[in-house]
Amino acid sequence: MCTNTRATCFKLLLSPHSGWIRFNNKCFMFKGKKGEIKANWSYARSWCKDQGGDLAVIDNQYENDLELPTWIGMSDLLVENQYAWSDGVSPVLYTNWNDKEPNNAGGAEHCVALAHNHLVSGKWNDDACHKDHSFVCSRKKCQ
Questions:
Q1: pLDDT band for position 39 (50/70/90)?
Q2: Residue 75 pairs with which residues in a beta bridge?
Q3: How far is CA 56 from the centre of its chain?
Q4: Separation between Cα atoms, residue 3 and residue 7, nearest integer Å
Q5: Helix, strand, coil tally for the chain in percent (to 5)
Q6: pLDDT, tens digit, for every residue of 59-89?
Q7: Is 10 helix (H, G, I), strand (E, B) or coil?
Q8: Side-chain half-sphere of 118: how many Cα atoms within 13 Å?
Q9: Contact, 28 vs 67, CB < 8 A?
Q10: Mean pLDDT computed over every residue of the chain
Q11: Domains of the chain by residue range
Q12: pLDDT the model gives residue 63
């Protein structure tokens, strides 16, 4: 088990050939750093599925500490105000909403992003799904 900071542990556990990072019992892939793809929520989910995963399911605070502003795999696209994971099977075991979120501002916010900036870190915000953000994929097996 890695005993360094969480961010360092992610880097140490990176599989250099696949781009997947082993963390706890899952693997993650981050996209959207400088020069990389950024995408709206639907395209990000499709891209993750093409890599054998889905947008990330966040099950606990430890996984929430990704330190990137990014789309995760939660939305209320199927049923308004009922947030669920995009894989359709994972139960919602953990949430970390920012104050006064989700708020569906303008009636157009249905997808969830992690916020990381000088004001908040790791808090969740419902956002307009058409916006381009970095994103994080997850899957059970690294290969």
A1: very high
A2: 84, 111
A3: 4
A4: 11
A5: 15, 30, 55
A6: 998 888 866 679 999 999 999 999 999 999 9
A7: helix
A8: 0
A9: no
A10: 86
A11: 30-139
A12: 87
Strand partners, 74: 85
Token pair 């990381």 is found at: 116
Could you name the CATH architecture of 30-139?
Roll (3.10)
Say how many CA atoms lie within 13 Å of 97 toward its Cβ: 13
Q: Which of 102, 44, 51, 93 is closest to 73 using CA atoms?
A: 44
Instruction: Report pTM.
Output: 0.83
List of E strands, the chain: 21-23, 26-31, 54-55, 70-75, 84-85, 111-116, 121-127, 134-139
- Give Cα 39 to chain centroid, integer Å: 13
Which tokens go with 21?
Answer: 């990072």
* Cβ atoms of residues 10 and 137 within 8 Å: no
